[in-house]
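Q: What structure does this chain adopt?
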Amino acid sequence: MNWTFFWIILIIGVALYVAWMFYSQREVAYLSILLYRNGDADAYLKELDTFQGKLYFNKRLRMLMSIDAWIAKGDKEQLEHAFKDAREHRLPMGDRLIVLQKELVFCIQNDKIERAEDVEKDIEKLYESMGNTQKKKYANTLQESRYTAAIYIHHSGKFADEIEKKAKEVKEEIPSGVYFYKAAQSWYLKKENKKCREDLEKAVQKLKGTPDQKTIQDILDSKDLDGILEMRF
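A:
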C-alpha cells in the first residue's frame, strides 16, 4: 500500500470536510439573519433555493426550514400542504416531531385552538413512542411545545421561572429575546406584572433591530400591557 498517497487523500478529505462544515454553518447564520433579524422571509426562501442552499441542505431539510418562513409570511396554503405532506409520508420520528411543533405554532397563530389541542396530544404521544436516545435528543423540542401550549392554549404561566432561566442561559440574542418575551407572557398570566415588565424590557434589548422590537416596546409602554398575548412565537 502506498502510504504517502493514503495520507495525502486523508488530509484532502479532512480539509474538504472542515471547509464544508465551516461554509454550511456560515450559510445557516446568514439564513438566520435574513429571517429572524431582517424579517425577510422571501429572501430566506430564495437563498434556500440557491446552489449553496441545495448543496448544504437536502430536500427534506429545506422543506422543514421553509416552514418557518411560510409561518412568518402567513402563507397558509404552503403550510397546509407541508403539514399534509408530512402526515402522508413516513418522516423520521425526530423530523415528524419538529413538523408537529411548527404545526402547533401555526394553529395557535391562526386561532385553530381545537386543532392545536389535537396536535399537542400528537406531540406527547409521538415523544412517548421514541427510544431513550431520541427522547434525550428531542427533549428540548418537546419542552418548547409545552411552553407554547401552556401560554396560548391553556393560558397558564406555570413555566415562567423555567422560561426565564432559559432566556438567561441562551447566548444568541434573538432566541434569548424570544424566551424573555414568553417569560413575560407567563408572568402576565400569573398576574405578576412587575416581573412581566422586567422581562419585556430585556426582550426589547435582545430583539433590538428586529421587526418585533417596536411592537414589544409599545406593549411595554401601555398602561395595562395591552396586546401582550396577541404576539405569538
